[in-house]
Amino acid sequence: MIRLLPSAPEAPVSAPSGAEFVVETIGLTKSYGGKTVLDRLDLRLPRGGIHAIVGANGAGKSTLFRILLGFLGASGGTARLLGRDSRCLTADDRRRVGFVNEEHSLPDWMKVGTVTAMQRRLYPAWNQPVFETVIGSYNVDPGQKVGQLSRGERAGFNLALALAQGPELLILDEPTLGLDVVAKRAFMESLMYSQATEACTIVYCSHQMEEIERLADNLIILERGRLRNMSPPEDFCARVRHFVADVPFKGPDPASVPGLLQVQRIDGLHHYLVLDQGDGFADFLRAAGARNIIDQPVGLDEAVNAILGQHHAAPR
Amino acid sequence: MLDLLKAEWLRFRALAATVALLHLGVIAFYGRMVDLLQQPPMIVQAVAAAYALAGLLLGLYQMGSYRRPNRWLNLLHRPLPPARIALALAGAGALLLTVALVLPMLIMLAGQEWMSARVVDVRHWLLPLAALLSAMAGYLAGAYAMVGVRRYAPLVLILPAMLPFSNAVGIGAIAIQVLVVAWLLYLLVTAFRPDPGRIPERPLPLILTALPVQLALYLVLLTAGDILFQLGWIMSGTHPLNSVPPRGGLVEASRAEGPDLVVAGLAASRSPEAPLWREQVSISDAFRIQPGFDQLPVRGELTNSVPIEFEDEEHQVHWTFSHDSMRFEGRGTIDGAPRGSLGLGESGARFQRPPVSLGEGVMVDAGRLVRFDPEIGRIVRRLALPAGETIAAAPVPVGDAVAILSDKALYLYDAQVLEEGDAAFPARWRAPLPGPIGDLERADIVELLDAHLVSFAYGRGNPDGAAAPFQTILRVDSQGRAIAVGARPLKSDFPLLSRFRDRWLSPAMNMVRHAMLNLFAPRTPLTAAASAPTPPSIWALALALCLGSLTAAWWWTRRVALPGRERVGWTLAAGAIGLPALISLWLFHPRRQAE
Lengths: 316, 595
Prior knowledge:
The complex is a heterodimer of chains A (316) and B (595).
Chain A: E1 21-32, E2 35-46, E3 50-55, H1 61-68, E4 76-81, E5 84-85, H2 91-95, E6 97-101, H3 112-122, H4 128-135, H5 151-164, E7 169-173, H6 181-193, H7 196-199, E8 201-205, H8 209-215, E9 218-223, E10 226-231, H9 233-239, E11 240-245, E12 260-266, E13 269-275, H10 280-287, E14 293-296, H11 300-309
Chain B: H1 2-33, H2 41-66, H3 69-76, H4 82-115, H5 127-147, H6 158-162, H7 171-191, H8 203-236, H9 250-255, H10 258-266, H11 274-282, E1 286-289, E2 309-312, E3 317-322, E4 327-332, E5 338-342, E6 356-359, E7 362-365, E8 368-373, E9 378-384, E10 396-398, E11 401-405, E12 409-414, H12 417-420, E13 429-432, E14 440-447, E15 451-458, E16 470-477, E17 482-489, H13 496-499, H14 501-505, H15 507-518, H16 536-559, H17 564-577, H18 579-588
Antiparallel strand pairs in B: 1-14, 2-3, 3-4, 4-5, 6-7, 7-8, 8-9, 10-11, 11-12, 12-13, 14-15, 15-16, 16-17
């Protein structure tokens, strides 16, 4: 069961192996100069499942990962990964955490087989069958140099390496960014059908809603460094409703519309996307003069875009 | 760790091999023209600088490529302690530099040792190590500049930059290089952590990081300030070196014609003969003698601080001194074939120390002057000074005589001494030096009818804070009695603030700089100088700067909210070191930590 939790007392620094949460931040704040990127973020991700983090550019996703992995200092608050203070991660902690980012930074000058052998020696829990299963989905030859791989092949190779390490936690930071449709699909299928994912918790950051929809057990929405939502994707979709109403003239003042995320007028009809509004919203529209009201289902993409677009600066 | 080292080796091996081949080609080309192992210090230092530059570029490029956030994350997010990752990368750097720089040198040395008659001493086999250490110092400084905190990390380049100025020689020089490399490696390892923007927290890494930064700031302030001051002075048209020098000053004395200088030195003479001498001097020739070399070669030094080879043109043999055999080793100038050894005297005895070759077969062996006699094919003693004295310049002809300057006295011999030796032609006279040899600017000899007047002008190094300049005139009669007949103080020409700039800016850093430069340095009698006490006004200025720095540091550490112990430490450092520590504080803590 995934839920938003209230703040808890600080967990002990040295209790990493049996930690309840793979990721835990309390009041986490990061500012660059005068700009706040993470704003007192309280986040707890329990073990197991795939946690998808979405947010507009600059919402603080990558900053959050960098702080969690100890590569960036926080301006305030605490961050823990697998129960360990992120500033004090040990080599063993890093063995337990896989990380794949959008650059798929791998040594271009080395052969695929050499890189694989190197990783195999580095990670005692290396799972060769998992590696072979994932890499088998790609046309990658061990004698090829990494620099000769296509972007999709690099992504697949990187994923195979990360999964074969046998991580308890796998962080994927926009791994499909820049991939074509075929490569994206191959990547997603590799991830979904790998046995390795059953044994680890995955934190997946992406802008691709179809990926989130397919993968995520838990949807985390960050907005301007704050936690806006944490729930299963379907629960989140259920919170957002799309009403189409035939309202005369301009319709009600948007400021007076409860839970309004987005309003558009298309072909004379008003489209309202609202958050946490029950059937009573239809009564509100009727009171505003609406004659016909249709309550449409909302897809994840539409719901997320609406919530992220709510406070987004737009041309006036 | 080994895998990471191999990965880096694979990455740069083609580059290393290419550089190695080019390097070997250059060495082979120049090796055909000159004896590479007998080059003067300037050439050797230029080559060492090129090696350090090669290392610096490798360090900058290698670490620069990892310094992008995602690459840095991928490099360090692995089940290895960051220190081991740093050591693996640095190990790869050392391996690459060994292949590119050391291997060609070893090939050259081996070729010279076994395929030519050129001298290859044990000390020369240390040159590849010294080259590797120079390159590693550059490499590690470049690596640290990339990995460390950008605001101050590049300043640690001061450590390799100071190496050419170290006064250590031989194994001592190697030890200094090892220390610098170890220091830089320590800095690199401590900077190698996931968040490289954090400054060191623990006292030892903090001190070892701050010290070179402060030293660099000190030298930058010192040099930049001096350049600005000198330029401004030159532009004003009153700089003593760039206009008519002030009367009675050191610059005027150093530039004056010999007779004019002696006449000026006699101006205040109370000797009744002074007017007559002045007349005689003004129509006579003066012979100028200056210290010729500061350093004496030390056995085992890596490079030749002074030339130690000469040519026997008559027999077409090139003689090169070997530190191993302590004799000269001959090589035919036409065929390059070995021509045997050449020691001292009839027995061919070993030299006690490496000699200084003055050309034309004349050599200084500490207090002895020896000469190669091509007719008998031997090196023969020509003159010997009293025990404990060291010859400080080449013989200077003075009419039918020759002057020999030692660290204690000036001697006049008959010119025949160079042919027949001092047994037949002992010293005509000995005039003791009125000051330390390290301060002597020049000596001038004027021959009178019945005696010689000798002028000693002191003040060498005075523009940089050495002792006050003065001139002394001695009259040395035919019996060898030396009597002071004239003296005058010379003006310093340069203001106190300029002369003592290295002291008032930061007395502590001045001491650190000198301690570093003189670590493991051999003692040499030729640099002995009088101590120049720091004037009270300079001490007062230094104290004021330190107190001002202390106050500013206290205020700044409070503003940036440093924790108590750190705050006290920085404040005390600013009080003890002054401006360099204050500026380094600002570089280390530019703003409130929480931001």
